[in-house]
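Side project, low priority. Logging it here so it doesn't get lost.
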Amino acid sequence: MPITPDTKNWTWVLERPCPDCGFDPAEVAFRDVPGLVRQNAAAWPAELARPDARTRPDDATWSPLEYGAHVRDVFRVFDTRLRLMLAEDAPTFANWDQDATALADDYAAQQPAVVADELVAAAAVVADAFQAVADEQLGRTGLRSDGSAFTVDSLARYFVHDPVHHLHDVRRRPAGRRPAGRRPAGRRPAGRRRTTD
């Protein structure tokens, strides 16, 4: 059953802590981001090896596998966006409909072990890309398709919240339970579209 897309604009995570996962942008420096990405990626293979990795806890929430496939794609998309910002002046990012991607790429049918390998590889690429950014490039800008403006510095913190949040999503709820106080998680890619679009 398709999951209802999340249409929230998640740019607020740059202004205040996330009440759900605890991510606090004020405590994350740009130079912390590569390490956070690598640490996050290292945790996903175990989550994707779970016996219930393919199981949605309810009809409105993604499975760990679907979340993992989304996080892999987040790493890839933000690597592309970062490189675009460094190569062009104030580029506008192509819209990424995460829910459409989840359906078109059939996240639920992908192989957990393959997704784990791809996620770790994509994380290494984007972590290296952020690590290579020079101090004088941190103020370079880019625009999301909805007009939201980012600098390289703010993009890094906005981006890293997504994998942090989704790892929290898959770890905190037993099968059959949805995280309290949060929109059904299965929707973003089929479940959380506005976080990273």
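Brief comment: The two ends are 23 Å apart (CA to CA).
Revisit when time allows.
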